[in-house]
Specification:
The chain has 288 residues and is of the alpha/beta class. The chain contains eleven helices and twelve strands. Helices cover 42% and strands 19% of the residues. The protein starts with a strand and ends in an 8-residue tail after the last helix.
Length: 288
C-alpha cells in the first residue's frame, strides 16, 4: 500500500480507502473479517455514515481494536438542523465506539437549498464547528457531486477536506473534477475521491449481479477498471474511497497492487480510456 498526506490535516492515509456502506446488512463476524482483511492489506482510512443502513453498527465492533491506527470519517445530512446534527454526531460516536472523528463531513450537498440550510444560522455547520471546539471532531469536510456546489462551499467556509467523484466518465463526459481539484489545492484541502470504479447508472431491468450499489460498478471489464482506477489515483487526490461492495474493494486492491509503480496513464492509455465512454459510459449523476 502507498500513503499520502490528507491535505493540511497531516493525516497519513492509504491511497485506497474503505467505503463503510459495504458492511450494511453483513453479519457481525463477516464485518469483523472484512475490516481485519482491509487493515492487513494496508488500508487505514474508513468512511461511514448514519444513512448507510446498519453499517455504523457493524463497523463499531469491527474497528474497535484498530481505532488508534486508523483514520475514521463520518458525516451528517446537510438539511439537518443544528440540534439534529448534534444528536446525529453523538449517536454515531456511541455506535462506532469512539470518542472523536478524524473528519466529520456534510454529506452529499447537491442543491442550493441544502447548501443554504447547512451554512445558515442554526444549520448543520454550526453544530460541527461546536463539536470541533469540544474535541469531538478534528477536521471538517463535505461531500458534493457537482463542481458548482463544491466551489460555493469552499468559498463560504474554510473546510479541511473535500469528498468528490473523481471518475473517468464524469471527468471526460461532464468535465466535472478539474476545477474542484484546482480550487481545493489553493488552501491545501484534503481530497477524498469517490466513484473511481463507477461506470454509470444502472439501465432499467439490467442484471445487477447482486451488486447493491445505485450505480453500475466496473465489475465486468478488467481493462476499463484498471484504467479508471489508475486515472483517479494519478490525479492530485489523497485517497480513493472504494465502492460499497467488498468485491469491488478487492478488485481495486488487486489493480493497485499490480500497478502501484505505474499509476500514470500513457497518452495511448488515456486515449483508450476516453474511447470507452461511447460504449461503456453514460449518465452517472444529474447535475442540477
Amino acid at each position: 500500500m502507498k500513503y499520502r498526506i490528507l491535505g493540511r490535516t497531516n493525516l497519513e492515509v492509504s491511497v485506497i480507502g474503505f467505503g463503510g456502506i459495504m458492511l450494511n446488512n453483513k453479519k457481525q463476524n463477516e464485518a469483523n473479517q472484512i475490516v481485519k482483511d482491509a487493515i492487513e492489506s494496508g488500508i487505514n482510512i474508513f468512511d461511514v455514515g448514519p444513512t448507510y443502513g446498519d453499517a455504523q453498527k457493524k463497523m463499531g465492533p469491527a474497528i474497535k481494536s484498530f481505532r488508534n491506527d486508523v483514520v475514521l470519517t463520518c458525516k451528517t445530512e446537510p438539511d439537518n438542523t443544528k440540534d439534529e446534527v448534534k444528536t446525529d454526531l453523538e449517536n454515531s460516536l456511541e455506535v462506532l465506539g469512539t470518542d472523536y472523528f478524524d473528519v466529520y463531513q456534510l454529506h452529499e450537498v447537491t442543491n442550493q437549498k441544502d447548501l443554504n440550510q447547512a451554512l445558515g444560522h442554526g444549520g448543520a455547520l454550526e453544530a460541527i464547528v461546536e463539536a470541533k471546539k469540544k474535541g469531538l471532531v478534528n477536521f471538517i469536510g463535505f461531500s458534493a457531486h457537482n463542481e458548482w456546489a463544491a466551489i460555493k462551499l469552499m468559498n463560504s467556509f474554510d473546510f479541511d477536506t473535500v469528498m468528490f467523484p473523481i471518475n473517468w466518465n464524469y471527468w471526460f463526459n461532464k468535465n466535472q473534477g478539474p476545477k474542484l481539484i484546482e480550487k481545493a489545492q489553493e488552501t491545501n484541502k484534503g481530497i477524498l475521491a469517490i466513484k473511481s470504479l463507477a461506470q454509470r447508472r444502472w439501465h432499467q431491468n439490467e442484471d445487477k449481479q447482486n451488486y447493491n450499489t445505485w450505480y453500475k460498478p466496473i465489475f465486468d471489464n478488467d481493462e476499463l477498471a484498471q484504467l479508471a482506477l489508475r486515472f483517479t489515483l494519478s490525479q492530485d487526490i489523497d485517497t480513493a474511497i472504494s465502492p460499497g461492495d467488498i468485491r469491488m474493494l478487492n478488485k481495486g486492491l488487486n489493480i493497485f497492487e499490480q500497478n502501484k509503480d505505474n499509476l500514470e496513464l500513457t497518452k495511448r492509455e488515456l486515449i483508450k480510456l476516453k474511447g470507452f465512454i461511447d460504449e461503456h459510459g453514460g449518465q452517472l449523476y444529474p447535475i442540477p
